[in-house]
Request: fold
Amino acid sequence: MAAAAHRFRTALLSGPMSVRGFRLLLAGQLSSTVGDYCYAVALPWLILSGDGGPVLLGTVLACYGIPRVVTIPLGGVVADRFGGRPVMLIADLVRAVAVGFLAVVTLNGTPTLAQLAPVAVVLGASSGVFIPSSYTLLPALLPKEDLGRGNALSTMVNQVGGLLGPTAGGLLVAGFGAGPALAVDAVSFLVSAVVLFRMRTGADAAADEPGARTDAAPGKEPAPGPSFVELLRNGRLLHVVLVVALVCNLAFNGTIEVALPGLAHERMGATGYGVLLTCLSLGGLAGSLLAARIRTAASPAYLFAGLAVVMGVALAAVPYAGGLVGAAVSICVYAVASGWQNIVAVTMLQVWTPPPLIGRVMSLVMLAVMGTFPISVAVAGFGVRHLGAAPFFPVAGAAISLAVLCALSQKAFRGYRTGSEYGADAGPGSGPPAAKAAPAAQTVPTPTRSSQESQG
Reply:
């Protein structure tokens, strides 16, 4: 018992967990994620229990989803210009007011489309600004050697919230109605804002020091870093990652959202479908745990590619692995590899990208992830209708595996080494010579960051 307690204290005081702000971040994330799922349960229940029905629900969700996608690029720009923390703080406060207003309206009657639509637009736009901003904070909080574990622990907390939140939301709505559940979500945004307010980045700490200067040599301008346009033109690693993200999400979204429920409807029933979705969540959590515990690979591109092959094979096996049990195991294996791979990719980009450009780079990646959703589900609907649900899985699995294996043909991707930065000896195609790039900004392990976006 004493040995276990000692190991726990050691883990708590080492790596990312030694940073007070990071520990606050995890607490804020858990609170925010649970609140988000309370909203996710309360909103459809509220609308479907009234006179609106599915058409009103779809309209409100569209009012949320379209502004979110449109404002993601804006979020990247303002995060790079003003810093991720203040942008996220404002976004959380705006969302707290919007959801709080909806909670008050709900407690006093049934909200109309004229009330629901503007709230959904505000929430969607705030969410779009928040998402890329959230990816700028860990690099400002943790040294780069701790980014992998930090991303893994952050993702794990979101996934735990994803397991606890729907149950909490369901109990709240069943016991007290949608209004209190929405109020809990509003409070969760306030908690996130308070956590952000109490955190400080390394830049904040440096600015507070007496006589702080922006560069060492008086009278000299700081060495200019690459512009975003230059990074887009010369950043071969970014090109490869964006293409892989597009292909993988085109294959994944339609398979999970269309082919999987179609397969379950044919062979496993509603209970079986629920089991498969649970395995998807648990597998993602296990993948994050592996990423947190296993030492960072020296060549993350090969780890990334190996995990993609596992994902492709597991996804292809879902309909042919032997009923519900085999499908559940295949889905779980897929989710473990996918959860681990996501953390590898995000960490790679956070380290490689010059700090002043992280927000805009991550906004591009998020657009590749989220913008493909309508195309993917439309293609999957057409494919499942003409091929059937089962054959769609090996097609999607092959697309994922081949996309990443093709990425290995690019020297900028396969030659990437952990810790390499844009333009700093990253190899041909990854950027301009080191002399043209700004020196990498060193991150200082001082507090900052809030909850990752999980709503919607």
Observations:
- The radius of gyration is 22 Å.
- The chain has a mean pLDDT of 78.
- DSSP finds 18 helices and no strands in the chain.
- The CA atoms of residues 52 and 115 lie 13 Å apart.
